[in-house]
Amino acid sequence: MRIFYPILTIAFFAFFVSFNTGCKKGNFTSNGTLTFSSDTLVFDTVFTTIGSVTKNFKFYNNDNKPLTVSKIKLMGGDNSPYRINVDGLSGNEFNEINIEGNDSLYVFVEVTLDPNNQLNPVVIEDSIQFTTNGVVQYVQLASWGQDMYYHYKDVFPVIAADTSWANDKPHVIYGYSAVDSAKTLNIQAGTDIYLHKNAILYVYKGALNINGTLNNPVTLQGDRLEMAYDDVSGQYYGIYFQEAMPSSIDYAIIKNGTSGVHLFSEDPANSGYTLTLTNTKIFNCARYGVFIYSGAKVKAENCLIYKNLNHSLLVLEGGDFNFNHCHLLGYSSDGGQNPAVGLSNTYYNPLLGTTFISSIEEGVITNSVIYGDLEQELAFDTISDPAITLSFQFENNLIRSSTIFTESFFNNNIWNQSPQFKDALENDFEFWSGSPLRDAGNNLFFSPTDILGTSRVNTPDIGAFELY
User: Nearest 5°: phi and psi at 294?
Assistant: First the structure.
């Protein structure tokens, strides 16, 4: 019988170890996840020199039991400009990192950027992945990729006094930059503004004046500079005006946003235009070029607004507009686009189950081109009501529309003739000498010069360009 004792002892010991191991995992190790001191680590780094800065964050185990992080990984690996150190260990990937209950560990992050890499985006990003009990979490890393002014989730009152943005180096908006109530932001000619994903330039009851010139326009675009992003729409949100004081944009290029210019509501104390928009190009936006909502007022002249997926001009739930010598065009390359111009004094709010109706007291488009790939590039959706005003004037325009509007406010318009643009596919919207746009404008709505600074004489051409 003695020969069986060792075998029984070994079997019992194996069972004991297995039982206790299982109990330990189930009862003494946390099944929770991590929390972090920050979900985004942002570096201010100068692009013109080889610079290196170090920042840190902490990850926490808020449980009473120990917690095991099965993997921590720098997603960019060896190609990342970032370097990380976890609890004193350097590398790109770490496994089975243990944290005692109610404890935390540091992650140190360094970044070194190559100033000679001209393909670097303005904001250089990576992330650190944490895998804990099957749950994946991330901390984002972002660095400014050249010498610039940066505006990172500015908190009210961010621009609390009248301010001017210089043009000696670019400005980057990461999150948002906001103009506070009764304050003014002036942007100098030649300023380059880059906006990160979903970023917004927000004007709240203040004023924005973009003061570009013919030879030094102000440019707003996404912060990815690689060639692959040259014509990618929706890279940022855009410029948002809420109950703004009188503002102006002159000689600007606004491209690749979601809504180039979005105006929400009118300042009750402002009897004039919310925004005066002149000599400006707005194109390749994922939704709208100019979006006027709920009473805002816009005057535009010599503007080229084209290839915006939903509408180049949308008026929703009322608002006033006066567009003269403008190109309001479709031609979106993404497909599924709507008419270039959509006008409505109503809006149905599905959350409230209510339809709102407002006035359009000035709805003017003159000496302009409304054209694109669709058979119908002008759409109306209006509801009359004794309590509201609808006042329209469409004169001396070239319009593509399968519906020939016969209302009295349509006068001297050219219907469904090709404008004979030089090359719409390549965004050349000047026209040939045989175009019906030639000498078809009205002197009553005369603008002295076109978007290129060319003088208009005698009977002007329709649109933003004057051809000699």
Answer: 55, 55
Shared domain for 60 and 122, answered yes or no, is yes
Query: Which alpha helices (H) appear in 201-251, and where do they start and end?
Result: none
- Compute the distance between CA of residue 431 and CA of residue 37 in angstroms, rounded to an integer: 58
CATH at 439: 2.160.20
Q: State pLDDT tens for residues 380-438.
A: 999 999 999 999 999 999 999 999 999 999 999 999 999 999 999 999 999 999 999 99
Burial of 281 (0-12, 13-18, 19+ CB in 10 A): buried
Structure tokens at 345: 């004094």
Give dist(CA 146, CA 359) in Å, integer. Answer: 47
* Integer angstrom CA distances of residue 51 from 79, 86, 154, 169, 322: 17, 22, 25, 18, 50
Look at residue 464 and tell me if it is in a domain. no
Distance between CA 147 and CA 171 in Å, rounded?
9
Residue that the structure tokens 């992050």 belong to: 109
For 53-97, write each residue's pLDDT tens digit: 789 999 999 999 999 999 999 999 999 989 999 999 999 999 999
Both tokens of residue 278? 């002149």
Question: Most distant CA pair in the chain: distance in Å?
Answer: 122
Are 399 and 379 in contact, with CB atoms under 8 Å apart? no
3-state SS class at 252: strand
Model-level pTM greater than 0.70? yes
Contact 367, 463 (CB under 8 A): yes
Instruction: Determine contact, residues 258/220, Cβ cutoff 8 Å.
Output: no
Q: In this structure, are 135 and 163 located in the same domain?
A: no
CB 392 within 8 A of CB 407: yes
Nearest-angstrom CA–CA distance, 242 and 237: 15
Structure confidence at residue 10 as a pLDDT band (50, 70, 90): very low
Confidence (pLDDT) at 122: 76
Q: Is 467 among the domain residues?
A: no
Q: Which two tokens stand for residue 250?
A: 């002159």
